Each structure stands twice: as C-alpha cells, then as structure tokens.
TrEMBL record:
InterPro entries: SlyX (IPR007236)
Keyword Manganese: no
Residue runs in coiled coils: 8-42
Family of the protein in this entry: Belongs to the SlyX family.
Protein name per Swiss-Prot or TrEMBL: Protein SlyX homolog
UniProt keyword terms in alphabetical order: Coiled coil
Keyword check for Lyase: no
Pfam families per the UniProt record, alphabetical: SlyX (PF04102)
Length: 70
C-alpha cells in the first residue's frame, strides 16, 4: 500500500513541476509576443518614414552630363 502512496506522491510532484514549467514557458511566450509586436510596430514606422522621404531633385551621378573640357 505504501508503494502506491509513494507513486501517487511522485506523480503529484511531477504534475506540479510540469505545471510550473508550462506557466514559465507561457510567460516567456507572452513576453516574446509583445516584443515581436513592438518590433513590427517600429518596423512599420520606419518603413512609413522611408516611403515618405521625397526623392532628391539632384540627378544621380550616372545621370549627370560630363562637364565641358577646354
């Protein structure tokens, strides 16, 4: 009978440990999800800023006509 009680106690300890592990993993996942959302928001802001930048009116180096030589 004591063997059965010992087995039940071991199972209860394992379940308690697994519940603690699951809770820890859940907290880590929630934090990572928040970080991912923050990074996505920052990326969208940067992308919008880059898209809003107007192109320069200056011609590119390959578009410039060479200067006249005397």
């Amino acid at each position: 009978m004591q063997h059965i009680i010992d087995d039940i106690e071991q199972l209860q300890m394992k379940v308690a440990f697994q519940e603690d592990t699951i809770e820890s993993l859940n907290k880590a996942l929630i934090e990572q999800q928040k970080q991912l959302e923050d990074l996505q928001f920052a990326f969208k802001r940067i992308l919008n800023k880059l898209q809003a930048i107007e192109p320069s009116n200056m011609a590119g180096e390959h578009e410039e006509t060479p200067p006249p030589h005397y």
